[in-house]
# Entry
Amino acid sequence: MLEDRVSDIVSRMTLREPFIATVFTKLERVFDDPRVTTGATDGKRVYFNREFCDKLDNEELLFLCLHEGAHVVWMHMWRRDGRKPDLWNYANDAIINRELIKSGYKMIKGGVLIDWVKDAMDSEYVYAKLLEDPPPQQPQKTSQSGARAPTRSRQARTASMSRQSRSWSAGASESRRRTA
# Structure
């Protein structure tokens, strides 16, 4: 059963990648969302397509979980701003997949891999370069491990997080003024 496999994978993640595992364990796990064809995250939940995941071996499923966790760790969904969602996700997938492969993990067949992406490149740089020179096949709404999470109310969530961040900053500033 996929739920059991993911639980076992999370245990392995804790030993191999404790920081990503810590973040990943806080995500609600959603199985069988019809809008997700592979795996995805919105920063609060991680989505799995059962049919896709059942075809993966345990090393590939580990890659998928690490990949989705890395999206959250690197805050990709909150850094997107006004960028094209599919191209932004494609750029981030390329960076994450390169890092995971470099760390010795087995990438899922068909995953995004761009040969010119190097260590010093961040998401914003890769995205800008892809805007100038788009990939031969335009990114789809969902791509291998790193597929976009369901987009309903994504803008509302981002706006809410932005307000929360400003509110926290204002409170911290006020607190500093009172203690000074």
